[in-house]
Design goal:
Blueprint lengths: L2 H55 L19 H8 L4 E5 L3 E6 L4 E11 L5 E5 L4 E8 L3 E3 L6 E5 L3 E7 L5 E8 L5 E9 L10 E11 L5 H6 L2 E5 L7 E4 L4 E5 L3 E7 L3 E11 L1 E8 L8 E12 L6 E11 L2 H7 L12 H21 L3 H32 L1 H10 L6 H15 L7 H20 L21 E7 L3 E4 L1 H18 L8 H22 L4 H25 L2 H11 L8 H26 L1
Antiparallel strand pairs: 1-2, 2-3, 3-4, 5-6, 5-11, 7-8, 8-9, 9-10, 10-19, 11-18, 12-13, 12-15, 14-17, 15-16, 16-19, 17-18, 20-21
Helix pairs in contact: 1-11, 5-6, 5-9, 6-9, 6-12, 7-8, 8-14, 9-12, 10-11, 10-12
């Protein structure tokens, strides 16, 4: 490699690493700053609400004794009583979910998913005590927020509970929750019965949700990257997503079918069976060092159609459980679209090839490391007919290395580059090799690698599944924890990522060993990128990603190396290749279009050089 190329690659690497380090620092700084702003805003909001409530409560009524008597906040006596009562909780459960509800606002209080655990072994809650809030806001003679009142528990069973907030005129607001058997689905019905105090011109009702999602996984960055808020509008191909470790918000002025507060592997999804008319959704991430160990705060301020003057129900479907593709698919609401499986082509390959193959092997094998190994072997065998020609060309070019070195010695000067290229093309043509054939495996492998890149970190099946030294294939494996963050690497060293990078280096050395242009700076630059830069960059990228991904890529390269070795050892014989070249000498060779263009370019270059020499002599 020439000096300029080396300096260029060093500068590119320095810029890349510096930019990555700067972005990481800025993201952390912005997250902390945003958390401070959110905390200040929350405190100011609470203080304002408290002051407003105090002002309302402190209205004095004059009396003959000039005594000050507090006025009730609410005109309705039953509402005032419900406002001052203490909250109680009730729990419903089935084989998969334990849902605790509170009478304050008649809302969920905590949701524990059975048979799943946080990293470290503690019970897994989609939201902890008090992490979920809901309020229906309606004008009924005065502004009513249901989240401010304690509902009465009218009835409760192991799988259902009915709340009621009565009014003095005989009407009431009801909340009913029914947990389906052996399911993560909860049916929720918000009802307004006999509410004569609601004016007839009221045509909509505001519904406000707020959920604080705790951290559940080992690595904050990976968990935050795959956590987001989604909402879906009927007729769309896929839901709109916001978040992925960044604070975001969006106002939607058209109808919304459902929204999801999505952690990497678990979600709380709320669907309005009659759709929301509009809404505003926001997501904000807690900083990595947050003492509460929370991940993100999601809000959905939605609006729904309302018809006063009659009994009116607003039905919801609530899903609280794992992001399992088959389960979502069976529900028929496009919930499966929140699982990141890639774009059109990659997503199609993941849905119709990777997932069915994964499920098939899982029927018979419980070890997911073995499943990934079998999947890798199957994929490599399927693409082998397409990659064989490329590997064979690579083997032929390796056998031609002595001849290509002779060509390099024959044309050592830079100005003879065209002649050298033409001689090499003639040699490859005689031997039946295609020097561009090495691009084919890359083109075939890249979509598959990208499909795996999207599938493994989002697969609930791999979560907390151990293999060899990795305790959890869905996140990074660590053989060395640094105790502090190291630029580009993080706070740990992943052995699978290290082995993958080492194997990638060996594979590149093997495939580039047949490079013929030993004096060509461009060819040597490509060798440097392939042999050194790519393995190093892939290590930095994969060190914080799923161990399953690094393990798959490690296996894929090992199998490719084995295929190349078998082809070079037993299929392509160097002496036969050289004999074929000797036999073709002196015989007319049909020139390809590429060779014809190369010869035309060479003649043009020679004419330009001759013209330049004439001009120099005239001077």
């Amino acid at each position: 490699m020439d000096k300029n190329s080396l300096i260029g690659f060093v500068l590119i690497a320095a810029i890349l690493f510096g930019f990555t380090f700067y972005q990481s620092k800025q993201a952390t700084k912005n997250a902390k700053y945003q958390a401070q702003l959110d905390s200040i805003a929350l405190v100011e909001q609470l203080a304002a609400e408290a002051a407003a409530a105090a002002d309302t409560a402190a209205v004095a009524l004059p009396s003959e004794a000039a005594a000050v008597v507090e006025q009730s906040i609410y005109k309705d006596e039953l509402l005032e009583q419900a406002h001052n009562e203490n909250a109680t909780t009730v729990t419903i459960s089935n084989e998969k979910l334990v849902l605790t509800l509170t009478s304050l606002g008649a809302r969920p209080y905590s949701a524990k998913v059975k048979d799943y655990y946080n990293y470290g072994g503690s019970d897994l809650y989609l939201f902890n005590e008090g992490g979920y809030s809901f309020s229906a806001n309606v004008y009924a003679g005065q502004y009513i927020r249901t989240g401010d009142f304690n509902f009465r528990i009218e009835s409760a069973t192991d799988s259902s509970v009915v709340f009621r907030l009565p009014f003095s005129d005989g009407g009431y607001i009801g909340q009913e929750y029914v947990l389906h058997k052996d399911s993560y689905v909860v049916d929720n019905t918000l009802s307004f019965v006999g509410m004569r105090s609601i004016p007839r011109n009221v045509s909509s009702i505001d519904l406000d949700w707020s959920v604080i999602v705790p951290r559940m996984e080992r690595g904050y960055k990976n968990e935050a990257q795959y956590s987001k808020l989604d909402f879906y509008q009927s007729g769309d191909n896929k839901p709109v997503e916001m978040g992925r470790s960044r604070n975001a918000g969006k106002r939607v002025n058209s109808r919304v079918s459902w929204f999801a507060f999505q952690q990497q592997f678990f979600s709380t999804i709320i669907r309005a069976k009659d759709e929301f008319s509009s809404g505003e959704l926001n997501v904000a991430f807690f900083p990595q060092d947050d003492e509460s160990h929370n991940l993100m705060h999601c809000t959905a301020d939605m609006r729904a159609d309302f018809r006063p003057g009659q009994d009116f129900n607003i039905p919801f479907e609530m899903y609280m459980g794992p992001n399992h593709y088959r389960t979502y698919k069976q529900m028929g609401q496009k919930y499966e679209k929140i699982i990141p499986l890639g774009g059109t082509l990659v997503g199609w390959f993941t849905r119709f090839v990777i997932i069915p193959m994964f499920d098939f092997f899982h029927r018979f094998i419980s070890n997911f490391g073995i499943i990934i190994l079998l999947m890798t072997i199957v994929i490599k065998l399927v693409v082998l007919p397409f990659t064989y020609k490329s590997y064979a060309s690579s083997a032929i070019m390796a056998a031609l290395k002595p001849e290509t070195e002779k060509i390099n010695e024959r044309y050592p000067r830079q100005e003879d580059a065209m002649k050298k290229s033409q001689a090499q093309m003639d040699l490859y043509k005689k031997a039946g090799a295609n020097p561009m054939g090495g691009c084919l495996p890359m083109l075939l492998t890249f979509p598959i690698l990208w499909a795996m890149f999207r599938f493994f970190p989002a697969s609930i099946e791999l979560r907390q599944q151990p293999f060899l030294w990795a305790s959890d294939l869905s996140t990074y494996d660590s053989i060395l924890d640094f105790g502090h963050s190291v630029p580009l690497i993080g706070d740990h060293l992943s052995l699978f990522a290290l082995l993958m990078a080492l194997t990638m280096w060996i594979y590149s050395k093997m495939t580039m060993s047949n490079s013929s242009a030993s004096n060509d700076p461009n060819a040597k630059s490509m060798q440097f990128v392939s042999v050194w830069m790519m393995p190093i960059m892939m290590f930095f990228i994969c060190n914080n990603l799923s161990a399953a991904l690094s393990y798959y890529y490690l296996l894929s390269q090992l199998i490719s190396m084995l295929e190349i070795w078998i082809i070079r050892k037993f299929v392509i014989k160097p002496d036969k290749v050289l004999a074929k070249v000797k036999a073709a000498e002196g015989q007319p060779q049909k020139k390809s279009k590429w060779q014809q263009r190369l010869e035309a370019a060479q003649k043009m270059q020679e004419q330009q050089m001759r013209q330049q020499q004439k001009n120099n002599r005239r001077k």
